Amino acid sequence: MRGADGRRSGGAPRFALLALCLGAALLAGCAGTRGQGAATPTAEAAPIPPKDALPLDQAAVALADATLLRAQLPPPGPSGRYRLVVDPLIDRATGTETQATRAMERRIISLVRERHPRFDLRPFTVASLDEKPLVLLGSIAPVAEAGSRANMPGPGRPAAYRIWAVLADLGTGRVVAHEEAWVRTDEVDATPVAFFRQSPVWTPDGAAAAYLRTCALFPGDAIDPAYLRAIRVQALVADGIRAYEEGRHRQALAFYEEARGLAPQDQQLRIRNGLYLANQALGRRREAEDAFGSVVEYGLERGRLAVKFVFRPGSTAFWPDPAISGPYPMWLRQIAARTDARAACLEVEGHSSPTGSAAVNDRLSLARAERVRGRLVAQRPELRERLEAEGVGSREPVVGTGADDASDVLDRRVEFEPRACPAQVAGVGGAAG
């Protein structure tokens, strides 16, 4: 695994992103009218979600009701209602939105509208944030057993998933609620949604880290300052993701370009992926290649670049569908060019999912790393002495379920890690200075 600085450090899964928090909750309010005129339940009647693993829909409802009714809220404004926005829920391990987090979010939004009229649900936009609303954040993570917060002891099918939600009050800068529930494993679809599934590069992102730190907080705690600084940018990113997935690619590009000019450097990965995807969808090949090069620079500057090359099962051959592997020659060209321009040495790490024996996975991951290394050297022969292939097998999964489908593609990635060049290699490469 890697420590806080991104370097490999030990034995546990390597990419777990700090804290956890998830998704299905809402704000709070103890009185008022409900639905068609019925009374809203009192705080004393607020159900505490059971520690049993429930179907996803039931768990989301229990989590949302508890969060709404038990939140420690200040008095509402003159309207008697609380403004509420939902910052899209994410998966704890990958920092991405998945089919499961989207399903929870839809259920929460529906429940707010149906049963909690004291909450004025607004879109997650810059204009809404200017009104200092309550913000719902949430996350999901596999656990060793239902009712537990303990992480899975290793790769494999989890016993259950923990979901949790936090309400943050932008007016006071404090967290006002934190609730949790558990979900049955067979109810969780961990497949990333389209934007994240199609993004070419994954690296731990500063925006996701700040989000998850806030998700780990409890009532009375101050909201993470990095999250507060970046929330307006993340609203623009969310707009861009929605536009991209709805086929409004020019609008998506405009949102990403605006966000790029505002975001801190450590919180730009989703923006750079978005610029690549939007330009690619618009047929702007030169701009798409420049945007991919920017993604590569982001990873190399931070010491890790995880590229989602998709291989045939049990093979070193890339997936044959041109819609998936068609851009790979351009990806390899940019990785080779950017590495060469830095006069850097690079470790090329192949990874595999936990399916199969450790020995087979070690050989397969090394063969894939060597295949990619060979393609990079073909692009830039001067990289021959500066690239080293390594097979990590399945020892460093991100997802770890062994599903071998779109939900755990990150476990079959190839990573590039800059490292110091030996003096004689640096001389051969013609390093500046």
From TrEMBL:
It holds the Pfam family OmpA. The keyword Isomerase does not apply. This is OmpA-like domain-containing protein. It comes from Craurococcus roseus. The keyword Ligase does not apply. InterPro entries: OmpA-like (IPR006665), OmpA-like_sf (IPR036737), TPR-like_helical_dom_sf (IPR011990). Residues 298-422 form the OmpA-like domain. Keywords: Membrane.
